[in-house]
Design goal:
about 220 residues; mainly alpha; 3 strands; about 70% helix
Length: about 220
């Protein structure tokens, strides 16, 4: 089958379905129907199954013979485990970035924080929160990824990206505030201040407080 201009690649479809999973557009335990999705994305059945198997391998879906694909069951225990793993990866990535990062890293981190702080300021009402959740989710990821971007380990960053996304999927399925809390801007400000001061221990404690607050 020859791909036409209107057909998306398997990578494009994977990215789009993954984004919808992170934003809880597909809910915990929902059945993922390959035929329905294939028609939605105008792709071959084999392409859709490839995407779903890849998402299952990454932990966003579950798969059982005869029962097919379902959105991963999101539980408080799994959210707690993902939070602990994210803390381990992010605090180490931040520590290494503070050791290795130069003025360009500081500039990128400052810019990412400025963008995030502006969006969080605009999310002052419940209505605005729902309207801006997509752009805020992207900016929040950019901030935390930039914090770790000078760590010098591609493997650490790749693992963090997967854990971050699974954390977001579980958080949004269990919280009604889209993962956004009114204290987020204060927590992000504390993290960036500690990172700029190259205070690894303080930055670690700020990250722990920021992430564990989601478990309360």
């Amino acid at each position: 089958m020859t791909r036409t201009e209107n057909q998306l690649s398997a990578s494009d479809i994977y990215d789009d379905v993954r984004k919808k999973l992170l934003l809880a557009r597909f809910q915990s335990g929902d059945k993922m129907k390959p035929e329905h999705l294939r028609n939605q994305y105008n792709c071959a059945a084999s392409t859709m199954r490839e995407v779903l198997f890849r998402l299952a391998c990454d932990g966003f879906l579950s798969f059982q013979e005869q029962r097919g694909f379902r959105v991963a069951i999101c539980t408080p225990n799994t959210l707690r485990d993902l939070t602990k793993m994210r803390i381990l990866l992010e605090t180490e990535g931040a520590r290494l970035s503070m050791l290795n990062g130069d003025i360009e890293w500081e500039a990128r981190l400052s810019a990412a924080h400025h963008k995030l702080a502006y969006i969080e300021f605009k999310m002052g009402t419940e209505q605005q929160t729902s309207l801006l959740v997509d752009v805020w989710s992207k900016a929040e990821w950019e901030f935390h990824e930039t914090l770790m971007s000078a760590c010098g380990s591609a493997v650490l960053r790749e693992q963090h990206h997967t854990i971050y996304d699974r954390f977001r999927q579980h958080l949004l399925n269990q919280r009604k505030h889209y993962g956004f809390r009114r204290t987020n801007h204060l927590e992000h400000h504390a993290i960036v201040d500690a990172a700029m001061a190259r205070d690894a221990e303080l930055c670690k404690q700020c990250i722990i407080r920021h992430l564990e607050a989601n478990l309360i």
